[in-house]
Amino acid sequence: MNTLFTICNKEIINLKTNDTVQSVERAIELLYCFTAQTPELTLNDFVKRTGLNRTTVFRLLSSLMKKELISKNEGKNTYQLGLPFIHFGQIVSENLDLRRMALPVMNRLTEVSKETISLNIVQGAARICVEKIEGKEDIRQFIHLGIPYPLYKGASGKLLLAYSTEELIEEVIEGSGMTNDETKALKKDLIQIKDQGFAFSRNERITGAFAISTPILNSQHELMGGLSISGLSARLDNNKQLFIEAAIQSAEKLSAMMGYQKLGG
């Protein structure tokens, strides 16, 4: 029977599903009122569909309009979704496309390495694995799909953080509880990762495990995600360079498929 090398549950960021904000939930209810058949709604439409009173609906609409999530047609006195939703839709579409295009590349990388391959993205201030291919070895690393993991630990997280904005880096550091020395070490790691084009960790998040992660970039040179190889450290010694080169080549292929071109290329 196969033995799974299971990620320690305490590394998973806990999300409290009962911690909600009523005003946010009500604002989201308004957004869900829109459909393809009803792209424009009046104030009374929102009141009927949500059961909220007119004053509450008006205040919520005003807040959404300030953030441009909803716009108002003054001539018709109706409301519609704002332009930011075009951008949100593009993000979702690109991530779906990334998963679809990544699977054949990930399968080939598994055949070369025999190790577990994962596709990770940034969500909020965390790392999420959105696709994985299990390794071929009897003892292998098990990765959970859709579970938030820290960005400041391990190669998969640090790779994504290295290619993120300074604002996100500072947000992650602020919420990590790291000491000043740990913060300095992390920032030094992030610079090195971006300079060399890959991240490597061994016994960092999980004792006895290694990970190698490489960036996937789009046509705007923006980070789309990270491609990672992970497995047991004991199998790494004779294969480290091979794994690094294979991971870089695979991520470069995916980046090219997303429209990325090297500067000056």
UniProtKB/TrEMBL annotation:
Residue span(s) of domain HTH iclR-type: 21-83
Pfam families: HTH_IclR (PF09339), IclR_C (PF01614)
SMART domains named in the record: HTH_ICLR
InterPro entries recorded: GAF-like_dom_sf, HTH_MetabolicPath_Reg, Tscrpt_reg_IclR_C, Tscrpt_reg_IclR_N, WH-like_DNA-bd_sf, WH_DNA-bd_sf
Keywords per UniProt: DNA-binding, Transcription, Transcription regulation
Record bears the keyword DNA-binding: yes
Domain IclR-ED: 84-260
GO biological process, alphabetically ordered: negative regulation of DNA-templated transcription
GO molecular function terms listed in the Swiss-Prot or TrEMBL record: DNA binding; DNA-binding transcription factor activity
Domain of life: Bacteria
Name of the featured protein: IclR family transcriptional regulator
